[in-house]
Amino acid sequence: AGHPPVFRWVRVLPEVFEPAVNAALEGSGYDVAFDNQFGGAIAKVGEELETVGEGLAEIGTIQALFDPAKLAIQNVTYYTPFVTADPRAIQELMGKLHLEAEGMQQAYDDENIVYLGAPTVIDDYLLMTNFPVNSMADLEGRRIAAPGAAVNWLSGTGAVGVSGNLTTYYNEIQTGVYDGVLVFASAALPGKLYEVAPYITKLGLGAQFAGVIGANKDWYDGLPEEVQQALRTGADAAADWYMADLEAFVDVAFTKMAEAGATITEASPTMRAEWATNMDNVARTWAAQLDGQGLPATAMLKTYMDGMRAAGATPLRDWDKE
Amino acid sequence: MTPFEIGLIALAAMGVLVLMGLWVPIALMVWSFGGVWAIRGNATLAGKMLALSANDTLQSYYFGVVPLFVLMGFVVSESGMGRDAYDVANTVFRRIRGGLGLGTVGANAIFAAITGISIASAAVFTRIAVPQMLRHGYTARFAVGVVAGSSVLGMLIPPSLLLILYGVITEQSIGHLFLAGVGPGLLLACVFGIGVVLAATFLPTRVQPGRMDGDEIAGLPPREMLIKGLPIALLIVFVLGGIYGGWFTPVEAGAMGAIGALVIGFAKRSLSLAGLWRILVETGLVTAAVCFLIIAAQMYGKMLAFSGIPAGFGELAAHANLGLMGLMILYIAIVVVMGMILDSSSIMLILVPIMLPVLAPMNVDLIWFGIVTVIAIEIGLLTPPFGLSVYVIKSTLDDPTITLGDIFAGAFPFALMMLLVLALVIAFPVIATGLL
Amino acid sequence: MILASRILDGVTQGLNIVGSALIVGLMAIIGADVIGRGVFGTPLPGVPEMVSLSIVAIVFLQIPAAMRGGRLTRSDAVIDRLAAARPGLTRWIETAFDLTAIFIIWVIVSSTWPLFERSWRRGDFVGAIGDFTAPTWPVKFIIMLGCSVMILQFAARILRRFLSDGEQPA
Ligand code: NA
Ligand code: NA
Question: Measured between beta carbons, which residues in chain C are less than 8 angstroms from residue B29?
Answer without folding.
Answer: 104-105, 108
